[in-house]
Structures are given as structure tokens and as C-alpha cells.
Amino acid sequence: MSKKILLVSASIGSGHIQAANAVRDELNRISPATNVAVVDFLDQEISLGHLIKETYLKMLDVLPHAYDFLYRKSQKSQPGASVKNVTALIMKRKMLKLLYEYRPDMLVFTHPFPCCAAAYLCRTGQLSIPMAAVMTDFSFHPMWLHKEINAYFVANNEIQHALHGNGIANDRIFITGIPISPKFTQTPPNNRTKDRGIPEILIMGGGLGLGAIEEAVISLQSAKTQLKIIAVAGNNAKLRDKLLTLKNTSCNPLTVMGYTERINELMANASLLITKSGALTCSEALSQELPLLLLSPLPGQEEDNANFLTQQGVALRISPAHQLASLVDELLSKPHILAAMRSKAHDLSKPAAANHIALMLSASIHNRTAIFSAS
């Protein structure tokens, strides 16, 4: 009988879903006999989940400092803190519904909300199948911490140390990197040091088109270097319309795009990426050895991602946006700095993360190895 793996994510931003899809695609490729599904834990048919997602996005837009306060407060919580318990109690019925509908043999989470709910069900004797967490940021947050989770797939040593320091055995923690689409391994970065053409500057704000994209495009109009600017608005139609208006007056060639499946190609040809610090986008950029300029990170986890990436030497933070043009001019005039950033990105990148995770999940569910020890 075919084994079933259910990947449970949440569409708060697009990165968590993209990570789940990347693992699913690799599982389908290497283990076609396995039945694999991805579900959105906060899909719009569930009114409570939709409300939570909309509340999160509204806080980021209207009350970013309040969201940052709540995020930092929850970071200081102990493993049994109320924030996780409340999340679990609110969402346990949704998880029970998914379990009844899909009847999986294994659960894999790319967002902490369903992870909290499943851990609660395990603690209360309502769930007993293997569970894995794929952590989709460069920093640790206690919302992910549950002794009921059998395996953790994480981005770096720092998260491994944090998990271990909170009681998770090292043999349950695997430093795989953050899973990105396999097509990023199939599009090697161009040799930009030999590119004599006009440098391309890629500006992105994730699937939701968040961050100071419009401000970045305006700032680059004052750059002394001739540039090609590619601005990706994602699913943000309002932003796309604003950018198209700017295109008429841009002194540099400006290409405006909505949601696209060609991010790997755009990154492979770019000299710099200007973006907020979503972990999926940044992991994709690392795979393409693409230097990062981080503008207006969202509060909370993206702020922590920005700190990690700058400390690693693969990114620079820029604030306010009007200083962007002078920084781009300086970097493009100093190729040795960009070369050093590309080298560090190469060392930090883990483009095969989805494949490594899929291999371990497949081997475990088919009893070829035992990465899921008893809780």
C-alpha cells in the first residue's frame, strides 16, 4: 500500500508554501510510489485561518512595531509558554480535519502554526505518526520547539545549537538548508565578472510584493552608473500599476513584472538583488551567488534573517531608500567587494536542501533508515 506524506504549510507570505512545494517536487521525483500532498493550513475556506492571515498582514502594514513587540515577546517564551498552547488550541480542529481527510503516514511542517497543533494532538494521545519540521528562516524561534517533533531540518549551525540548547537531541537535527525549487540547481549563475554589458539590478518583495520596491526604483534613477532595472511586484497588482507608471519616466531601462516562474533566470543574470529578507528569496539568491542589498525587512523573523545574512557577509542593509543609488554606484565600481560577497554566498548556499530532505523522508517512511526515533 502506498505511503502518504502530508506537507502542511501556511500562506502567510509565499515562502512557506514554496518550501513545501520544493520538498514535494523532490519526493515525487525520487519516490514516485509515495503519495505526497501539500496543504495550506490557513486556506481561505477556513474563516479562522483566513482571519489570522489577514490580521498578520494588516499588522505588518499598519502596526509593524506592535508586531515586532509581539514577536520579540514570544521569542523569550519558555518551551511550554502560553502562546504555543493558545495557537494549538485554536487550530487543533483544523489539524484533526486534515488528519481525517488525508490519513497520512507522516506529517511535515513548513510553518510553526500547524506544528503547534500537531504537537498538542500528540501530547494528548490523538496523534502518533512521525512528524518533521522544516524551519524556513535563518534564525530560531521557540514556536517551533516541541519535544513531539521527531526530526528538524534547519538552515544552519546556529539553529541547531539553539534547538539542542532547548533539549532537542542532536541526532534529531539535520542541517540541510532551506528547501528551494530544484530549478535553482539547474540554472548556474553566469560569470558576472566577465559581463561587459549593462549591469542588471533585480528588485523583489516576495510573492506579496512587500517592502520598499517603489522607493528603490525611484532612488535608482539618480544612480550615476547605467543600469537595467527589473522590478518584480509579485501578486501585488497595485504595486505593479505604480511601477508601470514609473517606467514612463525612468532614465534607466525598467522592466516591470508581476508573479513569475522565471526568478531563477532573473537571479542568474543579475549583478545585485534588492529585496526584503524573506528566507526563501534569500536562499534562492545564495544559490545563484547573488549579492544582497536588504531594504526594509519586515519586523520579526525577517529582521533576524537580515542580521544573520549581514553577519555572514553576503548582504548589506540599506536605510533609508534614498541612499540606495550611491551604494549601488559604489559596489559596481568595486568588483572586488562584489566578488567577496559572491564567494561568501557560494559557501553559505545549500541549493540541494530540498533533495536532501526528500531523500531522508523517503528513506524513513519506507523503513530504509530510522531518522525518526521515538519521542
UniProtKB/TrEMBL annotation:
Ranges for the Diacylglycerol glucosyltransferase N-terminal domain? 16-180
Key words of the record: Glycosyltransferase, Transferase
UniProt subcellular location: Membrane
Its primary localisation, in coarse terms, equals membrane
- Which E.C. number(s) belong to this protein? 2.4.1.315
Q: What are the protein's GO molecular function terms?
A: glycosyltransferase activity
- Supply the enzyme class, top level: transferase
Give the Glycosyl transferase family 28 C-terminal domain ranges. Answer: 201-355
Task: Specify one Pfam family.
Answer: MGDG_synth
Source superkingdom: Bacteria
* Protein family (similarity comment): Belongs to the glycosyltransferase 28 family.
Q: Which PANTHER family match?
A: MONOGALACTOSYLDIACYLGLYCEROL SYNTHASE, MONOGALACTOSYLDIACYLGLYCEROL SYNTHASE 1, CHLOROPLASTIC
Q: What is this protein called?
A: Processive diacylglycerol beta-glucosyltransferase
Organism for this UniProt entry: Sporomusa silvacetica DSM 10669
Query: Source organism lineage?
Result: Bacteria, Bacillati, Bacillota, Negativicutes, Selenomonadales
* Gene assigned in the entry: ugtP_3
